[in-house]
Amino acid sequence: MANPTFTITITADTICAWCYVNHVRLHKAIHLYKKTYCSTDTFSIRYKPYILQPHLPTTSVPVQDKFLERFGPTRASTIERLIDRSVLGDGIKFSKNGRVGDSRASHQVIAMLAHEGDKDAQDRVVGEIMKRYYEQDGDITDQEMLIDCVVNVGHVDRDIAVEALNSKELRSSIDEEATAARTAGINGVPYTVINGVVIEGARDVEELLTLLIDIKQNAFVGQTANAQGPNPISRPTKSYHHNTYERISSLHGFDGTGKTVLITGGASGISHHISKAFAKAGAKRVVLVSRSTEAQVKAKEELEKAFPDVNILTCQANITDGQKIRDIFKELGTVDVLVLNAAVAHRRAVATDIDVQDICDAFEVNVVSTFLIAKTYLTMSMPSIKSKTIISVSARAIHTINPQRVGYGASKTAAAQVMQSFASQFKEENVKIVSFHPGSICTPGIAQNISKNMFPWDDVELPADFALWLAGPESDFLHGRHVWAHWDVHELIALKDKIERQPEFLTIGLVQ
Q: Which of 44, 460, 443, 25 is nearest to 207 (CA)?
């Protein structure tokens, strides 16, 4: 049997309400993933035991009584309201009439199912046990209920279930595993690991779906263009960086002396770190163009304190305002490097639930304004150094399919094409235009939708320093190309002859 696309390990307790919520949401996310992204991908889900209350009696007591005893009336009521509000969209109807006790017996039959029944038996039975306990007034210590779940949902013989419940060895191993989990630093459940990515707590369906897609897309990084699956991403270099490195951080080759660098979206996130990189490289002026005055003030103060010899200028503007953009360029007089990073990503939803206005907004900012700013810059007088550089911050979305970001991927792809069109027009002149994917960066905007500990993010200094290298002379051969910040620049330089011989290599377009 082929290895599963996703290997999921969940440390949980059957008497943990959030563990049940996590189970329900994860399966909804998997269903959506298969329905909207890739129906052929496979999932292996395994459960590990965790004992939240090791001293509960083997004879059950009413859930409500134990809940009040543990938390007190006020806190218990608050927790109940929080849980009820949190699961409104999950289809879970918590009952308060179940009976709670030592959960070890349930863990014993669950552990047995790791070796008995079909590959999904354990996962199905976990869901059934928790559903009966939480929604159908079940008793977690009722061995007949547990056996019924194993037989009728797990499709395993009754004798095997009874043997598991009577096994002292299995009971002892449950305690050992639960203790090992605490020793390993797992202090709360659910604790989910998907292909090595740790998720603590019960995440929303949207977050889980996004994570599954991100994991799948990253799994293809480094494969050849003939790899199986949706949108495998080829890469031209063997070395693949997630953090900055000396070759781009200090040996980038960019000389900022006397130069003006204008950065859109430059007051926060990736743009802010790019601003710092150019200031550190000795640029004469660093110009931050963004909508947020508050963020600009904070960024300006930080940059001026760190780089007192650099003139930090801020321009509050909506980049869709053509006249304002033209006024900014006119007032500056000279711009040597233009970094385009302002962009919008509409709300996450499947394509049929996205409004037309969401699509229009994405294209207005990501495509039309990109075209407007680049055109304005390219039609200005040539700077005294007789060269112009445009660095467009792109996205991995142009290579992949995200069913919840229909407008984002399409608009960023269009923006990359716009850059390539400008590049083809200025082939023989002292103009360099390069687009690049910055990596998976947990920017403030991203953090609003995805937890910082949900994903192995790239270091934000990587795209900042890579942009600096792109602005230097070594990258001139990448004019009109689309590259990734992860790609090793030594190995990219080694591909110079190939890139110059093959005009469509590292460009965005239809491949037949």
A: 25
Vertex 419: Cα angle to 413 and 420 (nearest 5):
90
CA angle 438, 441, 445 (to 5 degrees): 115
pTM of this prediction exceeds 0.70: no
The residue-averaged pLDDT of 214-232 equals 50
> How many CB atoms within 10 Å of residue 476?
14
Q: What is the DSSP string of 3-32?
A: PPSEEEEEEE-TT-HHHHHHHHHHHHHHHH
Helix (H) or strand (E) holding 109: helix 104-112
Q: Which of 412, 432, 435, 475 is catalytic?
A: 412
> CA 175, CA 129: separation in Å to the nearest integer?
20
Region of 414 (left: φ > 0; alpha: ψ -120 to 50; beta: rest) is: alpha
Which is more confidently placed, 236 or 218? Answer: 236
Q: Is 226 buried (19+), middle (13-18) or exposed (0-12) by CB count in 10 A?
A: exposed
For residue 11, report the phi and psi dihedrals to the nearest 5 degrees.
-90, 125
44 catalytic per annotation: no
Whole-angstrom distance, CA of residue 41 vs CA of residue 54: 38
DSSP string of 139-208? BTT-HHHHHHHHHHTS---HHHHHHHHH-HHHHHHHHHHHHHHHHTT--SS-EEEETTEEEES---HHHH
Catalytic residue status for 412: yes
Q: What is the DSSP string of 189-207?
A: S-EEEETTEEEES---HHH
* Closest of 214, 216, 181, 207 to residue 43, by C-alpha: 216
Q: What span, in angstroms and rounded, lies between the C-alpha atoms of 173 and 170?
A: 5
Per-residue CA distances from 312 to 2, 27, 300, 352 (Å) = 56, 50, 6, 44
For residue 384, indicate whether it is catalytic.
no
pLDDT over threshold 80, residue 452: no
Torsion on CA atoms 124, 125, 131, 133, rounded to nearest 10: -170
Kindly name the residue from 133, 275, 408, 475 that is annotated as catalytic.
Answer: 408
Residue in 288, 291, 236, 232 with CA at minimum distance from that of residue 264: 288
Asked whether 292 and 299 are in contact (CB, 8 A), the reply is no
Q: Annotated catalytic residue: which of 106, 290, 394, 475?
A: 394
d(CA 144, CA 161): 10
- Considering only CA atoms, which of 30, 105, 94, 48 is closest in space to residue 67? 94
Binning pLDDT at 50, 70 and 90, where does residue 450 land? low
